[in-house]
TrEMBL record:
InterPro entries: Integrase_H2C2 (IPR041588), Retrovirus_Pol_polyprotein (IPR050951), RNaseH-like_sf (IPR012337), RNaseH_sf (IPR036397). It comes from the Eukaryota. Pfam families: Integrase_H2C2. It comes from Romanomermis culicivorax. Its EC number is 2.7.7.49. This is RNA-directed DNA polymerase. Residues 2-44 form the Integrase zinc-binding domain. The lineage of its organism: Eukaryota, Metazoa, Ecdysozoa, Nematoda, Enoplea. It is an enzyme of class 2 (transferase). Gene3D superfamilies: 1.10.340.70, Ribonuclease H-like superfamily/Ribonuclease H. GO terms for molecular function: nucleic acid binding; RNA-directed DNA polymerase activity.
Amino acid sequence: MNKAHEGHPGIIRAKIKLREMYWWPSIARDIEEMIGHCQGCQDSAKSNPQSRMPTDPLWLPKAPWEKIVIDVIAPFAMAPYQNRFAIIVIDYLSSFPIVELCPNHTAEKMMEFLTKLFARY
């Protein structure tokens, strides 16, 4: 257990490291107890309380299309009509996806697609 805790990686990483080599019924509890008594880990946790706080609060939109996610998937080797790329837009609130297949993903193509999309919705 001391070898898995070397470098003070934290409870989760120590469990993963130890479970790669060993198993016994109370392995999780034993690791948690050992790390709970580790002075180095306790000092580190006290000196850095912000490490446990989320960096960004979750912001949920109040209406559809208030927040969207845009991604490009590429390239598709055997796509029809030379459309090797897919532009994907997902509405954050409803998870509604919209996909456009295209031969390239230049800034001009993205603007053309988004202009049509926003005009439609």
